[in-house]
Amino acid sequence: MAASRTSQGWLGPLLLRLHFYAAILVGPFLLISAASGALYAVSPQLEKVVHAEALTAPADAAPLPLADQVEAAQAYIGPDAQLAAVRPAPQPGDTTRVMFVDEALAEGESRAIFLDPASGEVRGDLTVYGTSGALPLRGWIDQLHRNLHLGDAGRLYSELSASWLGVIALAGLGLWIRRARRSRRRRDLVRPDLRARGYRRTLSLHSSAGFWVLLGALFLAATGITWSQYGGGNIGTIRAAFGFTTQAVSPALPAAGDPTEPADGQGEHAGHGAAAGGEQGEHTEHGASGEAPDWASMAGPTDRTDPAAIDDVLAAGKAVNVDTGLVEILPPADADSAWVVQEIQRSYPTKVDAVAVDGATLEVIDRTDFAEQDLAAKLTRWGIDLHMGTMFGLVNQIVLFLIASTLVAMILWGYAMWWQRRPTRGGRGPGRPPHRGALRRAPWWGLALVLLVALGIGLMLPLLGLSLAAFVLVDSIVGRMRRSSQRGGASGADA
Q1: Are 149 and 143 a contacting pair, CB within 8 Å?
Q2: What is the pLDDT of residues 141-160, one digit of tens each?
Q3: Is the distance from CB of 127 to CB of 109 less than 8 angstroms?
Q4: Which domain holds residue 309?
Q5: Residue 147: inside a domain
Q6: 343 near 353, Cβ under 8 Å?
């Protein structure tokens, strides 16, 4: 019984103090992350409206060969511009994106020429960002959410908020369970008590909303950390140590005299070509025999980097494992590299297969298939796509918007409670923080557990560990100063 009373006397106050101080100090960062995240969730729809002319084209004619579209874009932008990637129009009514390297742009950005695939008419000239191909509006929101437009230094803010969001959410869950065990009307813990007034009403709104978004908040925190500089790097190191890595297609051409992988997919990846169900015959655009064409025997450019080969390169990829309209084609980086054709469909079912094709012989030299990736790689891919709202389209976006908007409201309610708890007589400042000293009342095993968890979190999430250590240091200094002030006041009164 004594141990039970001790545990009840320290854990609850510790969670309350942790939840309170973390939310107060990290709240501004969380507020920006949640608000910008909610805005990003609806940005694809905004993007379609703002950039409608660049994204759409008349759908009343057959498309030109992709090489002709690339040539039209090159003529528009100038012969010296370096081709970066090509995204063919995925369906009638869409435009083709031909992207070029631009040294004046930031890392991850490229200059995209949007073309009517049927006429080659230029429909837009915009900066695009990232694998998602975000246009200027969505790219601006994305950078705000990611780093406050401050570059790598600004990424510390998002890592700090993602790291602390999980801690605050779990501490809040502990407090919610503590209240639920003591409450006589537990239904008021999952729905707001609108009959209450003042602090109790705000607390009811805050805690009931937290109950419904808890899992979403933990998911956003966990997936958000994978993008972070330090915590994300540690996660990558752990995955690599256990072999849970994502396979990437290699564009490096074999050295002269070395055998290349046959175009029919035999060899290292045998079983994925025509011999495994006729996948190539189903997707080939050259002939109706159901057999994969002999790419090596076809006439083609001798220059492996010649853009005129792009149609045949795409057809070679479709004959292997590329079976979606959302495709990106990357040109060779140099004469010793191959073309890469990769799927970029991030909605369910996920299609991110890739194939490397020799531009001179049209032989397939490497391939990756999402179905063969390990479970950790698949979960990472799905988690990122869910976080970005692309996995399940509009439904995914609506859920993210609701979670992020609820987090914004909860943060504002939290600050409101802080103000409502201020002293009623002559109180001009906010409410006092929960009392310190919880760890001094903890049993030895409780103290050891807290220190062990803090050490593990600090090693895994360095920014969280450093900020937690700074908080403890500042709190200890403030506590000592207040105790010294109180002793000094008492001595003065005795004198």
Answers
A1: yes
A2: 999 999 999 988 899 999 99
A3: yes
A4: 274-372
A5: no
A6: yes
